[in-house]
């Protein structure tokens, strides 16, 4: 995410290395580079200029600080300003209605339908809500069908009236249906066009007026950069929406939209989409995003994700197995499943401080565990529980069955062996000492 921008900012800060004190000259030079990096990331010209002016004013006033290295001080000022620019505090979602009505707006292809599903799934699994999805696209039957596919995949009901050509009526009927059937959130997915047009704007404005949503969310594809910001402006003038959803942040986005949109429309980014799957949704935290942009990682999110996936019962089961020397490949596989649930590898690596930079040239596969899983699936149940049985002949069979090379099977066996040994050690008396040393 935003690798190019991170890289350029990092280079800009190098200018200050070795200087004892922040002077106007070296600050100006660094900030010129910062501005260039922002412009390259497709940040609006005026925003980039104001940004560096503000940082400069703050930096010059602070050369008395001796506890920090000037480079670090400037990085901190840039981080604070980036956080501020992206909205400062995290913006929550208003769920006070009964039912809460959420209207999704945006261009076709921005990711509205996908995000409607992600939001429904988020509210269902994380907020204990009973959401209803509403298909209000009267032009494209395929769009209605797509919402059904999404709804099915997450177990959320979809409301539609395929024969009705009046989106206002459909939305109103859906809300009645929700009230009568105990749904407490209604997510209305509307029609989108490939570009802003008058008819679409009139239509969504009518729906907006009629259903008075608690939340009107504008969905925009982050890959479209400055176009995203301009579309946001147009939609905001008509709908006065409550928040922005930035989708496709997992792609090769330059970052301009994320950085500029808040200050142009003065509406916060509430969520971001980071993939096509239903759980690829994140609450947007400006400070965490600023830290990621500056290559500081996002340890808080990483730990949160790990905690979300942590299954205490499973952990206890595994512990017992290790103690009894029964840890096998099936357990290994279930550990991999847990890690996978935390998100895709590229995204996770991006959250580790410094890792993005260190692994810049390493090609990370989206499905980094593909080969390992294939190898384990090619083992028989007995082999999985008693890996010691796997001899050369069996290895050759497993490699053939999984479409891998025998070296890959050997490598996995070795990794598994090392991991088992290490886990055993952590459990023994040595492990307890280690825990004590770490303050546990
Ligand atoms: P809509 O026309 O606004 O309803 O857009 P869709 O929900 O149909 O999304 C358009 C395309 O973008 C689909 O192929 C989605 O799978 C894809 N998409 C949506 N959100 C994301 C995201 O966060 N990341 C990625 N990589 N793809 C996304």
UniProtKB/TrEMBL annotation:
Enzyme class label: hydrolase
Record-level Gene Ontology MF annotations: 7S RNA binding; GTP binding; GTPase activity
One Pfam family per UniProt: SRP_SPB
Major location (coarse): cytoplasm
EC number: 3.6.5.4
Membrane-traversing stretches: none
Family matches, as NCBIfam families: ffh
Record-given protein name: Signal recognition particle protein
Gene name of the record: ffh
